[in-house]
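Hey, quick one: can you model this chain's 3D structure?
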Amino acid sequence: MATEVRTQTAGNMWKVLVKPGDAVRTGDTLFIMEVMKMEVAHEAPVDGTVTAVHVAEGAEGLDAEDLVVEIR
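Sure thing. Here's the predicted structure for all 72 residues.
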């Protein structure tokens, strides 16, 4: 079963730091959002391999709870 990493709040995607096939460890930064001129990092909640990235770097107008990364 895949672990889904979702946005914590609404904002814009500033940087996507992983791609499918990347190995990640708990606490690794997966992506950074721009929220009200602040950078908000989202970290891997589990060890595993990134199986999908659903949002491109530079995407604007994301909502809270949008699916961004899947880890298996």
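One thing worth noting: The CA atoms of residues 12 and 34 lie 5 Å apart.
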